[in-house]
């Protein structure tokens, strides 16, 4: 098949392109000008440097590639995870405008299938339960997080509601593994080693992770799967109060101390408290049934005490 991947040199984009090429697909990857172009060429993919914010350039890039499938893996993440909330408005704009350009071009040019990267960690579910695919994103989240979920939720609705193409929404968990923040040599591990991490409040928020290679496998399967929404998360959703100490032991870092919500609000932000006290884990049952998804056990789950 001919496949167009936007965000083709990101944490999931590049291994996805590599997997697609290994399977014999013809891939065009959209990336910023710079070293990403050579990274795509060395795995045998064509490179497009169209600016996601340039509607005509995106249209022309997709027209030139004439793909059967378009995959939106666009993200705008900072090098330092401490800046995630500060950078979130840029990421939100990228999804709203860049993703809008990508989707409009796919519809106009008669692309058969459109796959969207969404968030499996901002889902709204009752406390103590895992969110399934009927769950909506947390539109009530504070600040830039809420703005992000509302934009991505609207994007999901456009993709799933299209009558011009088959839409698939992949709601990934927090990525971990090679090229991500969550690995022994990653930015989060460095934060832990420097004593810059803390468990806020009761740490009762439940996080769902997914290994980057498992996310790639699910995305490859989605190319021919039944349209719809899939939660692409592992089998080990854990509360912050459990996964953070376990992760610390896994990367040989000190176990993070506790911090009250009041202190966190003063030192950090309302969004930080939200991440530690209100997130809900997700169920991967549909992905297992429809995508043949077989996620590995969370690599630091055995360090939970």
Could you describe the 3D structure shown?
- InterPro entries: Epimerase_deHydtase, NAD(P)-bd_dom_sf, NAD(P)-dependent_oxidoreduct.
- This is NAD(P)-dependent oxidoreductase.
- Residues 3-232 form the NAD-dependent epimerase/dehydratase domain.
- Keywords: Plasmid.
- The chain is globular and about 55 Å long.
- It contains eleven helices and 13 strands.
- With 305 residues, the protein is an alpha/beta fold.
- It has one domain (2-175, 210-234, 282-296): Rossmann fold (3-Layer(aba) Sandwich), CATH 3.40.50.
- Strand 4 (69-72), helix 4 (84-108) and strand 5 form a beta-alpha-beta unit.
- The model has no long low-confidence stretch (mean pLDDT 96).
- Helix 1 packs across helix 7 (212-222) and helix 4 (84-108) runs parallel beside helix 5 (143-161).
- A seven-stranded parallel sheet has the order 3-2-1-4-5-6-11, with helices on both faces. It has a two-stranded parallel ribbon with strand order 7-10. Strands 8-13 form a two-stranded parallel ribbon.
